[in-house]
C-alpha cells in the first residue's frame, strides 16, 4: 500500500513539474529528493515527516549552494570600511586619490568587492526550482498532514487562491465576529508567519552591516530593513504553510551560515587584511611590525586561529601588519 501511495505521489509531482518549463529538470530532481527524504523519515517513524522533509531539503540545498564567496567578499568590504572612511577623511574632495588608495587597499588586502556575483546567480535557478517543487507538492494535494501545532501544511489557503487575490480569505473578513477558519485554527496558522517576521528582523539585526547615518540613502535603508520582514510575513499569510515553513527554514539557515562566516571564520579564515593608508619607515619588533618611536603603542587587535593582527597608531595614521 505504501509503495502504491509513493508511486502515486511521484506521478502527481512529475505531472506538476512538467509545467515548470526550463526549470523542469531542476524541480523534477528536487521533487524526487523531497519524496525520498519524506519516505526515509516515514520509515524511521519520524513524526510530521513531510514538514521535516521540507526542512531537511531546504537546509541541504542551502548549504550546498550558499554563495560563500559573495558573503565573504561582503564581510571583507565591511571590515575594511573604517580604513576606507579614513582614506576619505584624509583626501577630502580628491576623488581620484580616494579611488586610487581604495583600489590599492582592496588589492593589498586580497579583497574583490565584485567577487561572488556569478556564484550567487548560479544559485537562483536552484532556489526557484525549490520554490516550484514545494508549489507542486502543495498543488498536488500532498501536504495534507500537519506539523506540530499547524493543522495542515496545505492550509490555510492555496496557491490558486493566492493567484486569484483571495489568499487571506481564511483570516478576514470575519464571519460572525471570527475568522472563517475559527479563532483556534487562525491562531495556529498565524504562529508561523509571526515567527517568520521575527526571524527576519533578528536576521537583519545580526547580519546587516551598520548603516552610516551620513549616507544620503540611510533613511531608505533603515526603512527597507523594517519593511521587508513585514512584506515576507504578508506573503506567508497568502500561501500554504508548507511554503512558509520553507521560508522560515531558509531564513534560519541563512542567518546561521552568515553568523558562522562572520564570527568563526567561515569557509576559510575571513580575517581581513587591514593595510596601510601609506607606509612610514618601520622596524621589526619581535614577530610583528611597530611604528618607530611608537613601539609601546603596539597592541594586538584581533586573534583568529592561525592569524595575529597587530596595529599601532602614529600621527593619526593607522598601520597594520599581518603575522602568520
From TrEMBL:
**Which keywords, in A-to-Z order, does the entry hold?**
Membrane, Transmembrane, Transmembrane helix
Give the InterPro entries listed for this entry.
YidC/ALB3/OXA1/COX18 (IPR001708), YidC/Oxa/ALB_C (IPR028055), YidC_ALB_C (IPR047196)
Coiled-coil spans are: none
What taxonomic ancestry is recorded? Eukaryota, Viridiplantae, Chlorophyta, core chlorophytes, Trebouxiophyceae
Organism listed in the record:
Coccomyxa subellipsoidea (strain C-169)
Name assigned to this protein: Membrane insertase YidC/Oxa/ALB C-terminal domain-containing protein
A Pfam family in this protein?
A: 60KD_IMP
Q: Which domain of life is it from?
A: Eukaryota
Similarity annotation? Belongs to the OXA1/ALB3/YidC (TC 2.A.9.2) family. Belongs to the OXA1/ALB3/YidC family.
